[in-house]
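Lab meeting, action items carried over

1. Structure of the two-component assembly. Owner: GW. Status: complete.
Input record:
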Amino acid sequence: MKHFLVLGPGCRNCDTTAKLIQERADRTNQPVCLEKVTDMATILGHGVMSTPGVVLDGKLLHAGSVPTPSQIDAWLQT
Amino acid sequence: MAWFATLADWLVFGIMGLSPEADAAKALHFFVEDTTKIFFLLVVIVFVLGLFRSLMTPEKVRQILTGRSAWSSYALAVLFGAVTPFCSCSSVPLFIGFLEAGIPLGVTMAFLITSPMINEVAVLILLTSMGWKITLAYVLTGMVVGMVGGLLFSHRRLEHLVEEYVWKIRMGSGVLPVMDLSWRGRLDFAASQVKEIVGRIWGYIFLGIGVGAFLHGFVPTAFFVAHAGPDNPFAVPIAVLAGIPMYSNATGVIPIGEALLAKGVPIGTVLALMMSVVAISLPEMIILRRVIKLGLIALFAGYLFVAFVLVGYLFNAIFS
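Predicted assembly:
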């Protein structure tokens, strides 16, 4: 099961990102594990300076904005 | 731009048949005109800029600012602060990321000051509503305030006012995959930027327009002449103080500025209020509290207060 980390101090964009990932996963009936990370040290440890950031199975995929649905779909398909 | 005024005329005075003399009609007209104008411009500008956004990211800025000599750092920091848009919740990781790269506290503060005040959307909307002179004044002032602020903060050796844990953080070198630069990818990204940004600030814009509309329709010019006119030497500090508890996005504060200018409030006072509303904000201070101790936050707010009051007096003097 894919393990997504959504990095951000808890503002609306971070929530939107998490919701969007869950939504896209539900569409394809793919179970995903979504975790929200708000701890700054961890966020920066991943190399993210502009939130929201998205990490999948340990790899940084995206940072700086809410990802587009097509971006998320591409990640779900890997 | 007159197009939007015409639309409002048609809707409020034509379709709804309200009288142009009525207070409520004037307020409604302001509301309709500004809402259509600002949202139209917002969508277009964010979309177009979104097409080219790959050019400037915080990671690139951080790279460029690292290891530079003092003077060029400050100039670049405020320049980047002016052109990079980011969500204010990114202030914290950005702050940490800059410091972690060895970028001096002063330079980082310069960036933090200029960033919320000057963004391309607000600048372009300011240009269309208030003309290039005021826009230039706003932008230059914002950058100077940022630079001076940064220099002042570095001069006073304030590193101890940053939370200790910040200095211990090591930033990972997460290599970000290259953005999809195909036209399809760019259009996708631009569209998502519109959704994200409009979704984030529409409330502030409506609020700003609402306040502006109210002032425009219901508060007589005489009130402003009596209290905020050029005869009141305290108008500027009061304007800045008034702006502190209020917060709005840089774009949302423009309709308020428009309404005040139309009522004859001097330009310096208006600019001081607008900057105060945007740059001295409780939400931002609360977020920054995570990384900066109260002492530095107080200094930050205090500096901005003094700076904006000076700017207000300066512009009132120049433009009177």
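2. GW to write a short summary for the group page. Key points so far: The mean pLDDT of chain B is 86. Chain B touches chain A at residues 57-59, 62, 86-90, 92-94, 96-98, 100, 165-166, 168-177, 180, 188-189, 191-193, 195-196, 199-200, 287, 290-291 (CB under 8 Å).
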